[in-house]
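Hey forum,

I'm writing up a methods section and want to include a predicted complex as supplementary material. The small molecule is pyridoxal-5'-phosphate. I've pasted the protein sequence and the SMILES. Can someone with a working setup run it? I'll credit the forum in the acknowledgements.
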Amino acid sequence: MKTEVQENLERIRRTLPPHVTLVAVSKFHPAGMIREAYDAGQRVFGESRVQELQEKARLLPADIEWHFIGHLQVNKVKYIAPYVSLIHAVDSLRLLREIDRQGDRAGRVIPCLLQLHVAREETKFGFSVEECRRLLQDGEWRSLRHVRIEGLMCMASNTPDAERVRADFRTARVFFEELRSTVFSDEATFSKCSWGMSGDYGTAIGEGSTMVRIGSSIFGERA
Ligand SMILES: *Cc1c(COP(=O)(O)O)cnc(C)c1O
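Reply by user p_vandermeer:
Happy to help. Structure tokens for the complex are below, copy them as they are.
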């Protein structure tokens, strides 16, 4: 018998093109539900709190790829640096430097995405296109040998207006293409576009997403 989580997962997987990675966002849901998804073949999970990730990583199989998708505080990087597979929401040079430092200590290169602020809301984290361009033109990040910038991440405006959402994703995609043909033209690893959640992943894929972060459509509403 399949569980509800497994049925949701399989239904969503059937709709995703093969080049799109599904990050199952398990934040606030118990390890047992992650295990159900794992048993249905899911290996990539997203969490947004360091302590919660730590606890789950201890309980669950070692071949899970843990993605950190939330806002990451500089002083907490050290806890996840040894094993995190991808940090989605890098939103400052200071954070990038600390990830580099902790990657060095852990003896590894940590894959990261830069978070773009494309939504209308004031409260969301992330670089504006201008800030991000400036950060990348100023070459300091190139000297950080223990982080690798593999793409961009964003969240669209929180609105039922599908055209607004589409325009936000498109802004991110256009900027991604610009970076890929300029700053990162020699780096094939700059390849990831992390956009799309339960409510908007179809639109996101239409606007070039290669990685969708889906929580409630798999695991149900969060408490
Ligand atoms: C919680 C969260 C998601 C998943 O949201 P759903 O609407 O439950 O799919 C995706 N991305 C980020 C950054 C999140 O914090």
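Some notes you might quote in the supplement: The chain is about 40% helix and 20% strand. Strands lie at 21-25, 44-47, 65-68, 86-90, 110-117, 147-155, 192-194, 211-214.
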